[in-house]
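Forwarding the complex inputs:
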Amino acid sequence: MSSDNTFLQMFSTLSESGELRLELMEKPVPVPEDNQVLVRIEATPINPSDQGVMFGWSDVGAGRSSGDGADRTFTAPVSEQGMRAMKARVGQPLAVGNEGAGTVVATGNSELARSLAGKVVAVMGGSMYAQYRCVDASACLPLLDGHTARDGASCFVNPLTALSMIETMNMEGHTALIHTAAASNLGQMLVRICQADGVQLVNIVRKQEQADLLLKMGAKYVINSGSENFMAELTDAIEATGATLAFDATGGGMLASNILTCMEAAAARIPGAYSIYGSVKHKQVYLYGNLDTSATVLQRAYGMAWGVGGWLLPNFLAKAGPEVSARLRARVANELKTTFASHYTNEISLSEALDADTVRQYYAKHTGEKYLICPQK
Amino acid sequence: MSSDNTFLQMFSTLSESGELRLELMEKPVPVPEDNQVLVRIEATPINPSDQGVMFGWSDVGAGRSSGDGADRTFTAPVSEQGMRAMKARVGQPLAVGNEGAGTVVATGNSELARSLAGKVVAVMGGSMYAQYRCVDASACLPLLDGHTARDGASCFVNPLTALSMIETMNMEGHTALIHTAAASNLGQMLVRICQADGVQLVNIVRKQEQADLLLKMGAKYVINSGSENFMAELTDAIEATGATLAFDATGGGMLASNILTCMEAAAARIPGAYSIYGSVKHKQVYLYGNLDTSATVLQRAYGMAWGVGGWLLPNFLAKAGPEVSARLRARVANELKTTFASHYTNEISLSEALDADTVRQYYAKHTGEKYLICPQK
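Prediction (whole assembly, two chains):
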């Protein structure tokens, strides 16, 4: 435990007057209850899903920092539309940071809690952009010997999301998968999982260098959405794989609709399968990210057996149940340095994460770039 | 059986050159096989879902008729975009007419087939815009004594769709329902079913006279989408009923998105339920119609637990299974003159259904207007 009895934790608050404020607050270090452990957070990644809570609908480009060290704050203006969308959070300091890893420095008296003493563990529990976090012992995933907090910082969001895509595919009766923004950290994991599990995967990327990266990894189907023949190439890949499920990280625009159009075109190639109400096999696109915040536009020229919807890891895991969760977590721990290895382009302190220039860098969400916060820095 | 051995049947064909053609073709009267019956079709309604097959993406306003009687044809031009959407049907004469009713005039030798001899039956089997239709005996729903073919012509599409909306609600864990275009024939049935079954229903209409009609029927929640306070009124009704499922007949535009926005706003009124990822309860809008053929625009300011998708009666019944189908069909037969009574504003012959002025009248799909084809006329 730290020598003094307080620690720093990041909060995001939206004021009534239309200003979003990110700051570090000083909190008393808690004493773990029976089944709890106190984790000294040593590494916690900045995921797109974290940024949703940190910045919401604020105008990050117009944001600015003031103060230094523990006193630094970042503030950004919020439009009227943004205020409407975020009405429910006005005045509430929201703790941020979905996942992270660190060392158990104090425990409660339960057997499970005591068994974790001194261990390096990964945690997904929110409030992780902090120097300490007190959590239920059962929420901890102990890393294998020799694995560091940095290795395990991104144990949950990306690995469990990628694995849960395959689980969703199986649960909902699909047999192959389409993924957009496929060169992302998550997308690369998904390529490795699909290779290991023999699942056919169609990767959609936006740039040639992203396509090259995935092809070099051995990905079989890589389609560039910037290609003139995008729709025809995607239809061919869908016909070859039989994919009727897609996970789209962009959310906005025409991409989901275009994927459904190509799924329907591929189905229509099956001789005699034509029906005026479209193909009977259900075609689904899940929007699991929001890289494009514009409206989703659906042209609906793909019959009646289709769906588009939001997809969120905690909602999926709640539906799938604890046995599935445990199975997926065990796989992540075992393959942490291979299938689920994450790469960070920058390591920053809690205070540096509030610097306006740094914010704008990680907020841009460039493919392949990933920031890690090291709260002990 | 008719005195000669041929009959007239309507077909819709799209030519390579971009013309959609509706015509009557002469077909030989079939002899029923063992488990089949031959039905003399006496009444068959024109539903919006039939018009999808009849006219597709053609420009009905620019359509014209030529010829008379059995030789009358209706042709309409098709845009390039329309041709792309209908590519799979080029050159195929499509039989039209989803449902109808008439008298069994010949049967096969099976016990079930023979038991239907002389009976008035309703049939949902496609190819119903015809003077005769040979179908499997098990596809027939015998009407109660004293009920005519006119009474039973619309036994399936609207009644089963309305009942299946309630089934969907129960199967997918919702407890109340929203319906758009709620003053339609189908909408009025749904009001009566929900009253009988004690299901809370929020009706969305576009005009005050439609609202008045439903209120007079005893509907409790009727919202006019033309109202200045539409969103606030809908949110209040959702809060009062707990509706997290909607069936939208319009399909295009912002209505589905607006309904989801109001569902989320209603959920956010529950104290302490705020989460940055939105309410956890799944919110669903099914598009079962296409009154507005413009794109569906989703603003996505309603968290992650939402879905939008197509909904088609045959797909639903296939999923629900034969026991559910049989239960719903029995209810329709028993309540044919009450809950499921249909009203027709016009009765026309097969040939009149191809008259360009008549086509434009029923194609306009005015609320409350419904055409019945009487093929023996």
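The radius of gyration of chain A is 22 Å.
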